[in-house]
Design goal:
mainly alpha; 0% strand; elongated
Amino acid sequence: MEKYLIPVMIVTGYLLVYVIAIGLELRLNLILFMFSISPILILWMVYKVLTADVRVDNTFEDKWYEDGEERKQHPVSH
């Protein structure tokens, strides 16, 4: 697994716990605390993803959609 995906999974899990805490109507102090530190986690995740050492050889002009070649080979008929 790529190292830059770990923060994405952690923050996604945190979001799920946060939403479940709201749904279960847990203590308001806990929910407000989780809400207050969520921007820090989001900034950490964005920083890790943007500074990841990933090489992309394609440009938007070369490959706008990932399935662009498949669509050309199998056009949808209406």
